[in-house]
Amino acid sequence: MAGFMHDGGFEDPPVLGLQYVDATMTPVVGDKAAKLGEMISAGLPVPEGFAVTTRAYLRMAAAAGLGIIMDQLAGVPSADTGALAGVAAHARSLVLAAPEPAELAAAVRKAYAELGTDVPVAVRSSATAEDLEFASFAGQQDTYLNVVGTEAVLDAVRRCWASLWTDRALIYRTVHGVDNSTVALAVVVQKMVDVLVAGVMFTANPVTGNRGETVIDASPGLGEAVVSGAVNPDHFVVRTGTSEIVGRRLGGKGLLIRALPGGGTERLERTPTDDPACLTDGQIRALADLGRRVQNHFGAPQDTEWAIDGSGSLWLTQSRPITTLYPLPDKVPAGPEPRAYLCFSLAQGLTRPLTPMGLAGIRLVASSVAMNAGFVVDDPLAGPSPYTEAGQRIFIDVTSAVRSRVGRAIMPRVFDVMEARSAVLVRQLFTDPGFSVLSTPALPLLKRVGGIALRARVPAAALQSLLLPTAALERADRLAE
What we know:
The strands form 4 sheets. The chain has a 6-stranded antiparallel beta sheet with strand order 9-8-7-6-12-13. Strands 1-2-5-3-4 form a 5-stranded antiparallel beta sheet. A 3-stranded antiparallel beta sheet has the order 14-16-15. 40% of the residues lie in helices and 19% in strands. It is an alpha+beta fold. The radius of gyration is 29 Å and the shape is elongated. It is built from 17 helices and 16 strands. It has helices at 26-41, 54-64, 67-74, 81-97, 102-115, 150-162, 167-175, 224-227, 281-298, 344-347, 356-372, 399-402, 405-418, 420-429, 443-455, 458-467, 469-480, and strands at 15-17, 49-52, 121-127, 143-147, 185-191, 195-202, 213-220, 234-239, 244-249, 255-259, 265-269, 302-309, 314-321, 341-343, 387-390, 393-397.
């Protein structure tokens, strides 16, 4: 109940302009507003607006008697979703019926008037437990678009507060161990962009994990159609380092959500046609460049929402870290060139992570094999240079082999026998310009492969298998035992 102990007036302003907000203020303005303020301070294009702080929410929560909700939650196990849903409904009813703090209403009216006369705004929830590094709370609290008028804004703020207690939000927080008594909700009020086209942009490929690709989904109208998954958008993939558009797939764009004069939105069904792309190549590259700037500012791949207005100006309306990327290998050579890694764990049928002891033993085995093959291993405990680990699994850097004519001749044939799925992917890499063949002499590699084969008595074993297949099979059985 400590989170709802607030029995005085507002010691600090209940409303803050986004231009005065930064990353240190997440407890006061929530994660969404804090990131918007950060982007404004970095000179990135963000629509102007203000944040209704968590102090306003806590004042309302104390007046609404939400402390009783914490008492109810104390006896509910996280697996009892039915009981959690009942508590959530009770909390929402308390929030919607709570008296409105007079100081807050006055502050919101003043801040809204400073944006313009009856200017259309987006009213968006900004929770303190939102878009964390270990979990994404995206979409769990409500957003209201094209809200016009002071009273409509105040009503949307209250409904955002109530959405902190939806069934989905409460259950998700409880399952992830987030203390509900410490959670509060700020609300962002921002000028609406006169949207021509909008969508989402990932500064790393969320499907392949490629950090060198920017992925953009776009559709005409408000971005809600793309964010909610209600539309099949145009899809573009940009190679970040060169701004080359390497992927292009046009969607049906069968739904258009647009703002109505006087407030609210409407959803229009569109007949899917062979419409041209809703973004030009110049706009695609400009968005990718904007994404690079956002990622550089936050220091990690970002999931962003963006919009382009009728004049062609680009706007950012949200940014959050991508929480689903597979971790990078622990040893990655410096440089912009792409690298190819084979998951040796999966090739051996090991789908689960390995223990630290198991990984240490395998590093020593790999070092022994490499040294016997004539390679220099600086630290056997760290493994040979092509060996690396990610997510407690074994990976082998096969970039040199993929970019070698000899490697291209050998690798697919080996994988056809031992790991057919990898053979398909390796052949796809051969068509990627980022993995073009380098001019490297083949003789040193052939010598190494030949030396390994001789030391392992591969020629003798192959000859025996041809001449005395039964004896060869018996020998294999003995080795297995």
